[in-house]
Structures are given as structure tokens and as C-alpha cells.
Structure prediction request, 450 residues.
Amino acid sequence: MALSQAAGYVEKLVGHQDNAIIEQDITNPALDRAKYADPSGETMQALVWNGKNSVKVQEVPKPRVVEPRDVILKVTGSTVCGSDLHLLHSSVIELQKGDILGHEFCGVVDSFGPEVKNLQKGQRVVASFQIACGDCYFCKQKLSSQCLKTNSNTIAHGMYGGSTAGIFGYSHFTGGFAGGQAEYVRVPLGDVNLLKLPDSVPDEKGLFLSDVLATSWHCVVDTGVTKGDVVAIWGAGPIGQMCADYCFINGAARVIIIDQNWRLDYVKSKYPKVETIDYSALPKGESVTSTLIKMVPNGGPDVALECVAGEYAKGWAHYFELMLGAETDTSEIVNEMITSVKSFGRCGITGVYVGFTNHFNIGSLMERGIRLIGNGQAPVHLYWEKLCGMIESGEIDPLKMVTHRVDISEIDLVYDKFDKKEDGMQKVFVQTKFSAPPAAGSPSLTLYKK
Prediction:
């Protein structure tokens, strides 16, 4: 938490860049009720960051239209993502107490600014987790995650050598925008960053166009999975699960998932063709790499996909280096990927890595011709129309991920259970007072408070 506060102080000291065309750092309407809160005085429930390993549901003001292309949504569905846990753990810098979290959400249009011409009140929409301007160099190619005009954070630009798009509910490092784990949310540039949902796609499916469906698809196609490939996937969470689905859709011959605990069995129950490795139960002297090389002829898989993240150390060296701030991310999984794929194999990183790592096996990368691909934050705009069509046709079913339906009033408890991988929680649908009744095939409501 001290690092996060220090980074925020430095950002204030040096100031933002001048590239953003929308106001930054509106992470809660309570910051300035006169400017950011709805004049009606209406309040809402919202999940806020309260410090390292602490989030809580608070009553905060409903947001108002601040800029002419804003859209205010009544949130009808949100979720908790593995990426949200990086905020919970303070792995992502520049969080402030009271920041409203949540980057995946859908809803109905409540109101909008005078320059929004393509939406009507009451329309059902899903939001892109990134905020794009729609007309910069990258947005014209629908590479929305790399928008040049929505995030003016100086530290982020300095660390990465370029700008990335603003992201909802993901700290001031990504622009400082209030997120959608709430009953209302303000969507800047809403005429660009909202996709209308057809009646045939219920919220329990359409919600996931916001992030997980596009992120998984991007991981698979950007890393270049093709017909006949053998693919190893690190991580059996929702991203890893959907990557397995997409690998088969794109012609992979075999998919092997590496993880531990009940999630391996869960994914295999949905996709029986998937093979699994429980890294915590390997025989003495065996590693993930040695196991994969034995499983796959000619030196290992063709492709490796990283669907975990860099904050989870497996060995003591990285554990202490992370704890002491000597690195921000462990290289252990990436090194396993590099040594596990066959020569000239491809490795794609979609799990979140925020900064710098030690002990990276650059020698194997170079000598064996391994292609290491940073997939980046997925450009949702490039894929969400195609993926919506795949939902409509039945080619993909996002409900295969969804194990729980929960209420916004208990989302703080959900964070804790999701973090601890308790209660068989793979992916949740978070309802609000505006949500429709559960769609066919979706879980019934789970309540945790007695």
C-alpha cells in the first residue's frame, strides 16, 4: 500500500500528460458532489477499495453526466475478475481509498450527454472494459486497448514507453475511472464504448463480452493457435477455460491445462477433451516442463498460453523478491513456458504483468528461437461483435464459466471467497436491483450473509 500511495504522490507532483480528451481521476462521485454526483441526491451501492486486502460496499452518490459524450447506465450485471485480485492485493499502483472498482459490466441506458446520438434510454448494452476515443491511430484499427487519448498517467507512460487506454475501476494508473461494481456507472465516450445487446443474448451471457470472452479470444488468435497445434495453458480460471474452448474452435489437436485444486476438474467437466497437469502433485524429481515434454512428442507443445499473472510466486526466491519490492512480477511461469514448448514454439502472455521481473531465461528464448508474445490488454472493440454473433449461434456458451449468481450487497464477501478459491467459485454474475430475473441455464442466487 505504501508503494501505491508513493506512486500517487509522485504522479501528483509531476502532473499528468496532456493527451487525454476526457477528464481523469473521477473514481467516485463523492470526490466532488457538486461536479460529479447526480443533482437528485440519489445514492447507490458500490464496491470500493479500502486498502490492501480490503474492499467494502458503501453507499455513494449516483454519478451524473459530466462530459457531453457520457452515458449513465443502470448496471444490470457485473462480475469479479482475476485481474480485480491484483487491485485487492495492491499489486497495481496508484489506488486510493474510496475508488469504485469493477471493469466488466452491462446495463441499460439511464441518461446521456447531448453529443450521444446512437443510443436511447432503456437500451440494453455491454461496456468495453477499456475506454477508447474511437478516432486515434489505434482506435481506427479497433485496437481499443491502446487508445492514445483516454489515459494521461505519466508514470504509466514512463514505465511502458507509450500510452495505453483508460480502464474502468482499475486505479489512477489507468486514468482513474469509477468502475461498474455498482448500481450505476458513468461511461465516458459512451457512444463508442457500449455495444447494444440483442434480445437473444441475456445479460448473463452478454456481460462477458466486456472482457473475458475478448481477452481469451485475443490470447488464442494473437499467439497464433492453428490447426493441429498442441497447446499448453497455464491457469484453469475463466480465461484459461475459455482459451481451451477457443483453441479447439481454432483447430488445436490437444489442449493441456496446468493448475492445481478443483478448477482442473471443473474445466475438464465442461471440456472432456482437455488434458490436465496438477503441478502440486507431480512426482519427486518431475517438473511441469519435464512432464509436458514426456506428454508431447518432438520436444513439447507448439504453443504455451499464460493465463495466470505475475504476482504469484511459486519458489522462495521470488516470494521474497516480490515482498521486498526487488521485482513486481515473478518470471517463473514464463520461464516454464519457454522451456516447455518445442524449439521455435510460441508463448503468449495474457495474465497481468505490471512491471519488472528477475531471473528471466533469455538464453533459452534466444538459443531455441522461442517466440514470446505479449498479448497486451485485449482490444475488445476488435472482437466483440464477432463474439456476440458466436453467442447467438450457440458456438460459444459463456454460462459454462458461471458457477454463482450473487448480489451487489455481498460483493465484498465474494472477493474474499474468489481470492481463496472457495465454494467452487469459477465466475460470478453480480446482480443489482435493476437486474432481470435469472436467464435459463444460469445459476440461482447464492446469499452468504446470515
Observations:
- Residues 348 and 373 are 5 Å apart (CA to CA).
- The first strand starts at residue 43 and ends at 49.
- DSSP finds 15 helices and 17 strands in the chain.
- The chain has a mean pLDDT of 92.
